[in-house]
Amino acid sequence: MRRRLRIRKYTYIPIGINLRDFDPLAKGHPDLFKSKYSLHDSFIVTYSGGVWYPGGVDMQGLHKVVEAAALASRRVGRMKLILQTLRINPELLRLCKELNVKVLMMGPLSHYSSMERQSLFAATDVFLAPNSRHPVVYYAERIKFFQYMAAAKAIVAEKTPGALSALGDAAYYVQLDEPEAMADAIVELYENAELRGQLGERARERVAREFDWNVLAPKFREFVFKMAGVS
Question: How many angstroms separate the CA atoms of 144 and 146, rounded?
Fold first, then answer.
Protein backbone atom coordinates (compact mmCIF):
# COMPACT_ATOMS: atom_id res chain seq x y z
CA MET A 1 0.00 0.00 0.00
CA ARG A 2 2.86 2.36 0.86
CA ARG A 3 4.54 1.60 -2.47
CA ARG A 4 1.39 1.80 -4.57
CA LEU A 5 0.24 5.10 -3.07
CA ARG A 6 3.80 6.42 -2.83
CA ILE A 7 3.43 7.23 0.84
CA ARG A 8 6.76 8.42 2.20
CA LYS A 9 5.91 9.03 5.84
CA TYR A 10 3.78 6.63 7.82
CA THR A 11 3.42 4.87 11.12
CA TYR A 12 1.50 1.81 12.29
CA ILE A 13 -0.79 1.94 15.30
CA PRO A 14 -2.64 -1.29 16.22
CA ILE A 15 -6.32 -0.96 17.07
CA GLY A 16 -5.50 -2.17 20.58
CA ILE A 17 -7.91 -1.97 23.49
CA ASN A 18 -9.09 0.48 26.12
CA LEU A 19 -8.55 -1.37 29.39
CA ARG A 20 -10.48 1.29 31.28
CA ASP A 21 -13.55 0.19 29.32
CA PHE A 22 -12.96 -3.52 28.70
CA ASP A 23 -11.30 -5.22 31.66
CA PRO A 24 -12.79 -8.60 32.63
CA LEU A 25 -10.45 -8.81 35.63
CA ALA A 26 -12.02 -5.71 37.16
CA LYS A 27 -15.53 -5.73 35.70
CA GLY A 28 -16.35 -9.40 35.16
CA HIS A 29 -18.29 -11.55 37.61
CA PRO A 30 -17.40 -15.17 36.79
CA ASP A 31 -19.38 -16.75 39.62
CA LEU A 32 -22.56 -14.93 38.62
CA PHE A 33 -22.10 -16.01 35.01
CA LYS A 34 -21.48 -19.64 35.95
CA SER A 35 -24.47 -19.63 38.27
CA LYS A 36 -26.76 -18.14 35.61
CA TYR A 37 -25.89 -20.87 33.10
CA SER A 38 -25.24 -23.73 35.57
CA LEU A 39 -21.55 -23.94 34.68
CA HIS A 40 -19.89 -24.17 38.09
CA ASP A 41 -18.37 -27.60 37.40
CA SER A 42 -17.53 -26.93 33.77
CA PHE A 43 -14.23 -26.39 31.99
CA ILE A 44 -15.21 -23.45 29.77
CA VAL A 45 -13.76 -23.09 26.28
CA THR A 46 -14.89 -19.93 24.49
CA TYR A 47 -14.95 -18.37 21.06
CA SER A 48 -16.23 -14.81 20.94
CA GLY A 49 -16.37 -12.89 17.69
CA GLY A 50 -17.78 -12.73 14.23
CA VAL A 51 -19.44 -15.28 11.98
CA TRP A 52 -18.53 -14.84 8.33
CA TYR A 53 -19.82 -17.19 5.61
CA PRO A 54 -19.56 -15.42 2.20
CA GLY A 55 -20.79 -17.85 -0.42
CA GLY A 56 -21.12 -20.49 2.27
CA VAL A 57 -17.36 -20.48 3.00
CA ASP A 58 -16.36 -20.47 6.69
CA MET A 59 -13.92 -17.54 6.78
CA GLN A 60 -13.57 -17.44 10.57
CA GLY A 61 -12.73 -21.11 11.03
CA LEU A 62 -15.65 -21.83 13.35
CA HIS A 63 -16.27 -25.31 11.98
CA LYS A 64 -12.77 -26.22 13.17
CA VAL A 65 -13.64 -24.93 16.63
CA VAL A 66 -16.63 -27.28 16.82
CA GLU A 67 -14.61 -30.20 15.45
CA ALA A 68 -11.82 -29.56 17.96
CA ALA A 69 -14.34 -29.30 20.80
CA ALA A 70 -15.91 -32.61 19.79
CA LEU A 71 -12.51 -34.33 19.89
CA ALA A 72 -11.42 -32.67 23.15
CA SER A 73 -14.69 -33.40 24.94
CA ARG A 74 -14.03 -37.14 24.61
CA ARG A 75 -11.10 -36.62 27.00
CA VAL A 76 -12.49 -33.70 29.01
CA GLY A 77 -15.94 -34.84 30.08
CA ARG A 78 -16.89 -31.62 31.86
CA MET A 79 -15.93 -29.34 28.97
CA LYS A 80 -18.46 -26.75 27.80
CA LEU A 81 -18.03 -24.88 24.52
CA ILE A 82 -19.40 -21.33 24.45
CA LEU A 83 -19.88 -19.59 21.12
CA GLN A 84 -20.68 -15.90 21.61
CA THR A 85 -21.23 -14.48 18.14
CA LEU A 86 -22.86 -11.55 16.39
CA ARG A 87 -25.70 -13.80 15.29
CA ILE A 88 -26.86 -17.35 15.86
CA ASN A 89 -25.77 -19.56 12.97
CA PRO A 90 -28.04 -22.55 12.21
CA GLU A 91 -25.21 -24.38 10.44
CA LEU A 92 -23.05 -24.22 13.56
CA LEU A 93 -25.92 -25.44 15.72
CA ARG A 94 -26.48 -28.35 13.33
CA LEU A 95 -22.79 -29.26 13.44
CA CYS A 96 -22.69 -29.13 17.25
CA LYS A 97 -25.70 -31.46 17.40
CA GLU A 98 -24.23 -33.78 14.80
CA LEU A 99 -20.90 -34.04 16.68
CA ASN A 100 -22.58 -34.18 20.10
CA VAL A 101 -20.82 -31.06 21.40
CA LYS A 102 -22.10 -29.53 24.63
CA VAL A 103 -22.48 -25.93 23.53
CA LEU A 104 -23.93 -22.71 24.86
CA MET A 105 -24.54 -20.47 21.87
CA MET A 106 -24.98 -16.83 22.78
CA GLY A 107 -26.00 -14.16 20.32
CA PRO A 108 -25.04 -10.49 20.47
CA LEU A 109 -25.08 -8.95 23.93
CA SER A 110 -26.12 -5.39 24.73
CA HIS A 111 -22.61 -4.02 24.20
CA TYR A 112 -19.15 -5.44 23.57
CA SER A 113 -18.13 -4.30 27.06
CA SER A 114 -21.36 -5.31 28.81
CA MET A 115 -21.06 -6.86 32.25
CA GLU A 116 -22.36 -10.19 30.94
CA ARG A 117 -19.75 -10.37 28.18
CA GLN A 118 -16.95 -9.39 30.53
CA SER A 119 -18.24 -11.96 33.02
CA LEU A 120 -18.15 -14.59 30.26
CA PHE A 121 -14.52 -13.68 29.62
CA ALA A 122 -13.69 -13.82 33.32
CA ALA A 123 -15.34 -17.26 33.63
CA THR A 124 -13.57 -18.74 30.60
CA ASP A 125 -10.71 -21.20 31.08
CA VAL A 126 -9.41 -21.28 27.50
CA PHE A 127 -10.10 -19.02 24.53
CA LEU A 128 -9.99 -20.27 20.94
CA ALA A 129 -8.66 -18.10 18.13
CA PRO A 130 -9.29 -19.92 14.84
CA ASN A 131 -8.13 -18.45 11.55
CA SER A 132 -8.33 -19.06 7.83
CA ARG A 133 -6.19 -18.55 4.74
CA HIS A 134 -8.34 -15.68 3.48
CA PRO A 135 -6.03 -12.61 3.50
CA VAL A 136 -8.49 -10.45 5.46
CA VAL A 137 -8.33 -13.00 8.30
CA TYR A 138 -4.86 -14.46 7.75
CA TYR A 139 -3.02 -11.15 8.13
CA ALA A 140 -5.38 -9.37 10.53
CA GLU A 141 -4.69 -8.38 14.11
CA ARG A 142 -8.28 -9.03 15.10
CA ILE A 143 -10.08 -7.20 17.89
CA LYS A 144 -10.85 -10.46 19.70
CA PHE A 145 -7.12 -11.08 20.21
CA PHE A 146 -6.74 -7.98 22.37
CA GLN A 147 -9.95 -8.70 24.27
CA TYR A 148 -8.87 -12.28 24.94
CA MET A 149 -5.54 -11.07 26.30
CA ALA A 150 -7.29 -8.60 28.61
CA ALA A 151 -9.00 -11.52 30.38
CA ALA A 152 -5.64 -13.04 31.40
CA LYS A 153 -6.62 -16.53 30.25
CA ALA A 154 -4.88 -19.07 28.03
CA ILE A 155 -5.43 -18.66 24.28
CA VAL A 156 -5.18 -21.41 21.68
CA ALA A 157 -4.51 -19.77 18.32
CA GLU A 158 -4.03 -21.10 14.83
CA LYS A 159 -0.69 -19.74 13.68
CA THR A 160 -0.99 -16.91 11.16
CA PRO A 161 0.93 -13.64 10.66
CA GLY A 162 -1.92 -11.69 12.22
CA ALA A 163 -2.11 -13.90 15.30
CA LEU A 164 1.66 -13.85 15.80
CA SER A 165 1.77 -10.08 15.46
CA ALA A 166 -0.90 -9.48 18.08
CA LEU A 167 -0.38 -12.40 20.48
CA GLY A 168 3.39 -12.75 20.30
CA ASP A 169 4.59 -15.31 22.85
CA ALA A 170 1.35 -15.10 24.83
CA ALA A 171 -0.57 -17.93 23.13
CA TYR A 172 -0.50 -21.67 22.59
CA TYR A 173 -0.12 -21.99 18.81
CA VAL A 174 -1.29 -24.82 16.58
CA GLN A 175 -0.90 -25.19 12.85
CA LEU A 176 -3.62 -23.82 10.61
CA ASP A 177 -6.43 -26.19 9.62
CA GLU A 178 -5.57 -28.93 12.13
CA PRO A 179 -8.54 -29.31 14.51
CA GLU A 180 -6.90 -32.39 16.01
CA ALA A 181 -3.98 -30.23 17.15
CA MET A 182 -6.39 -27.66 18.58
CA ALA A 183 -8.14 -30.45 20.50
CA ASP A 184 -4.80 -31.70 21.86
CA ALA A 185 -3.99 -28.16 23.00
CA ILE A 186 -7.31 -27.86 24.84
CA VAL A 187 -6.69 -31.16 26.62
CA GLU A 188 -3.12 -30.21 27.56
CA LEU A 189 -4.28 -26.89 29.00
CA TYR A 190 -7.07 -28.65 30.89
CA GLU A 191 -4.54 -30.97 32.48
CA ASN A 192 -1.92 -28.27 33.13
CA ALA A 193 -3.35 -25.44 35.24
CA GLU A 194 0.13 -23.99 35.73
CA LEU A 195 0.62 -23.56 31.98
CA ARG A 196 -2.84 -21.99 31.68
CA GLY A 197 -1.91 -19.51 34.36
CA GLN A 198 1.44 -18.68 32.80
CA LEU A 199 -0.07 -18.05 29.38
CA GLY A 200 -2.84 -15.95 30.90
CA GLU A 201 -0.41 -13.77 32.85
CA ARG A 202 1.80 -13.36 29.78
CA ALA A 203 -1.20 -12.33 27.68
CA ARG A 204 -2.38 -9.75 30.18
CA GLU A 205 1.10 -8.29 30.58
CA ARG A 206 1.50 -8.06 26.80
CA VAL A 207 -1.79 -6.29 26.15
CA ALA A 208 -1.23 -3.81 28.98
CA ARG A 209 2.34 -3.12 27.90
CA GLU A 210 1.86 -2.81 24.14
CA PHE A 211 -1.80 -2.46 23.17
CA ASP A 212 -3.62 -0.40 25.79
CA TRP A 213 -4.85 2.92 24.40
CA ASN A 214 -2.89 4.67 27.14
CA VAL A 215 0.20 3.38 25.35
CA LEU A 216 -0.99 3.74 21.76
CA ALA A 217 -2.66 7.17 21.89
CA PRO A 218 0.58 9.11 22.62
CA LYS A 219 2.24 7.41 19.62
CA PHE A 220 -0.64 8.45 17.38
CA ARG A 221 -0.56 11.97 18.79
CA GLU A 222 3.20 12.25 18.29
CA PHE A 223 2.94 11.18 14.64
CA VAL A 224 0.05 13.55 13.85
CA PHE A 225 1.84 16.48 15.48
CA LYS A 226 5.03 15.63 13.63
CA MET A 227 3.23 15.61 10.29
CA ALA A 228 1.51 18.89 11.17
CA GLY A 229 4.78 20.49 12.19
CA VAL A 230 3.56 21.03 15.77
CA SER A 231 6.11 20.57 18.52
Answer: 5
